[in-house]
Amino acid sequence: MTPPTALTIAGSDSGGGAGIQADLRTFFAHGVHGLVALTAVTVQNSLGVQGFTEIPADVVTAQIKAVASDMGVNAAKTGMLATAEIIRAVAKTLDEVEVGSLVVDPVAASMTGHALLREDALEAIRTELFPRATLITPNLDEVRLLTGISVVDAASQRSAAEALLEFGSRWVLVKGGHLVGTPECVDLLTDGREYRELSGPRYETENTHGGGDTMASAITSSLAKGASIPDAVAAGKKFIERCVAEGYSLGAGVGPVSPFWVLDR
Ligand SMILES: Nc1ncnc2c1ncn2[C@@H]1O[C@H](COP(=O)(O)OP(=O)(O)O)[C@@H](O)[C@H]1O
Ligand SMILES: Cc1ncc(COP(=O)(O)O)c(N)n1
């Protein structure tokens, strides 16, 4: 039987833990056929990002059009988009092709603190992509860059979600993984009417590289299979929790989250 398809528009991580590599292994773990529009090639390992080269914007759009016109895209997600030019080209292309739901993970930097976006590009994500998104999935650092709000508790997490909704996405998921010192990791999902707190245990681990990509692509996988946003996000939270719990050391720095547990199911 032909599986559902999901498209990732994102960068490559040579270390294999984040970016399109995380997306493809997550799509596979969900029984979804992964399609790729590569935006950048990063030189990266467990210690950080040593550099990146972006793919020409017309090549990014050609990849999206090639797969959308021939294979069909049930759901799509964006990760590292590198430049404002690529963001504008992706936004325009997404108006011209059918991609089902769109999850925008506004990746700005690696967890090791290295920029994955050129400086003027965050504004382009906010103005060009958010209004086209079904769901956006910022972490707390991205929330601060996008809204100026520092999330320190449930009340500021809610204010930040409301400020983000103003940029025009249908739903916002404010991920709480970076709110350290709390026994639980609480992510807040809202469309401005419904508010859902998704809460789970915080695991003691260093190995969380690729966590954001894995969660966004798990959500995208469920959307590709026809789930609603609340159901897809709830399933994504369960999936990432287990991947964080089973994250492994690889290299001298930060290891990746692991989707390998699905092989034992
Ligand atoms: N130590 C942890 N234990 C359990 N879940 C975690 C942990 N760190 C992050 N998560 C969860 O993983 C997902 C991604 O987390 P977050 O760290 O907030 O974003 P990002 O990976 O984009 O920086 C969220 O659902 C978050 O709650
Ligand atoms: C190509 C690429 N895309 C995304 C991330 C973010 O992942 P993380 O926050 O885990 O470093 C990354 N490091 N590299």
Automatic annotation (TrEMBL):
Stored Pfam families: Phos_pyr_kin
InterPro entries: Carboh/pur_kinase_PfkB_CS, HMP/HMP-P_kinase_dom, PM/HMP-P_kinase-1, Ribokinase-like
GO terms for MF: ATP binding; hydroxymethylpyrimidine kinase activity; phosphomethylpyrimidine kinase activity
Enzyme class label: transferase
GO cellular component, one term: cytosol
GO BP annotations, alphabetical order: thiamine biosynthetic process
Residue intervals of the Pyridoxamine kinase/Phosphomethylpyrimidine kinase domain: 13-257
Pathway participation: Cofactor biosynthesis; thiamine diphosphate biosynthesis; 4-amino-2-methyl-5-diphosphomethylpyrimidine from 5-amino-1-(5-phospho-D-ribosyl)imidazole: step 3/3
Enzyme Commission numbers on file: 2.7.1.49, 2.7.4.7
Record-annotated membrane-spanning stretches: none
Domain of life: Bacteria
CDD domains, alphabetized: HMPP_kinase
Keywords: ATP-binding, Kinase, Nucleotide-binding, Thiamine biosynthesis, Transferase
Catalytic reaction list: 4-amino-2-methyl-5-(phosphooxymethyl)pyrimidine + ATP = 4-amino-2-methyl-5-(diphosphooxymethyl)pyrimidine + ADP; 4-amino-5-hydroxymethyl-2-methylpyrimidine + ATP = 4-amino-2-methyl-5-(phosphooxymethyl)pyrimidine + ADP + H(+)
PANTHER family: HYDROXYMETHYLPYRIMIDINE_PHOSPHOMETHYLPYRIMIDINE KINASE THI20-RELATED, PHOSPHOMETHYLPYRIMIDINE KINASE
UniProt function note: Catalyzes the phosphorylation of hydroxymethylpyrimidine phosphate (HMP-P) to HMP-PP, and of HMP to HMP-P.
Name of the featured protein: Bifunctional hydroxymethylpyrimidine kinase/phosphomethylpyrimidine kinase
Protein source organism: Amycolatopsis iheyensis
